[in-house]
Fold this protein.
Amino acid sequence: MGKSMPLALWILAALVAGVTFFILFSYAGMTQRDSFTAVEEEPGYSGREVLASVGPHILYASDVAAIRAGDDAVGSWIHDQLLACAAEEAGLENPAISRFVQERAKQLYLRDLIVEHVIQNTNQPTESEVWAYMLASPELFLLERHYLQIIAADSAIADSLHTRLEWGQNFQVTAQNSSLGQKAAIGGDLGFVTGGEMLLQGLPMDIALLDGLSEVVQSSIGWHIFKVSETRIISDSLRVMRSATEALYNSRIDAVLDSVLLATENRLSAEVVH
């Protein structure tokens, strides 16, 4: 009997430990399932397929489908959410900035929706309308200008080059030696282009109607100097009609958006307070 007691105690302890582990495991599993179910049963989220989660943050399949995200969307979301959680845990978040970012993101999303709505409901111009538009602006659409261009990295360099060109320095040689543009090797020669096509590239009206040397013009890629060496009647009317069609269509869209802005501003009394 004395020798059998330790074995009996060991068996009893093993049974108690097994029951304890079973209870704890069952409770943990129940808690995890209850937590998952709670997320799934939030108002508006019932039955939605979960693609991924990071802590309490959930990525739903319907959200990914709604924005037509690519195949790497889930991995990118997990990566970014982990870093976002790390920033939050480190106390780096500024709640005021977070609120602004959320409002700004919604603002841009809604802005894009109204722009898309206007585009979808604006009629493409007919061929006769395009011809009438071109005839109303012959300087922009019936004449081609032979453009040369120099692109400089900053305004100081552009101003220096412009001064030398005004003194008579050869434009194409200067372009070959100093321009950052893709056409630098051929003297910045852009070929014959209509003013309307230059407007579509975001350039101002004085460049579209240029005759001779331009002033320095800034853009997102640098500082530009243009020169028009000659003009001629359009040689490719189909190309110019395509650009005129786009210009007329864009002007219609802009007109509708301007009317939407004006009507909304009058209704909501938009103003700058400070």
User: Anything to note?
Assistant: DSSP finds eleven helices and seven strands in the chain. Residues 4-40 form the longest helix (37 residues). Confidence is low (pLDDT under 50) at residues 1-43.
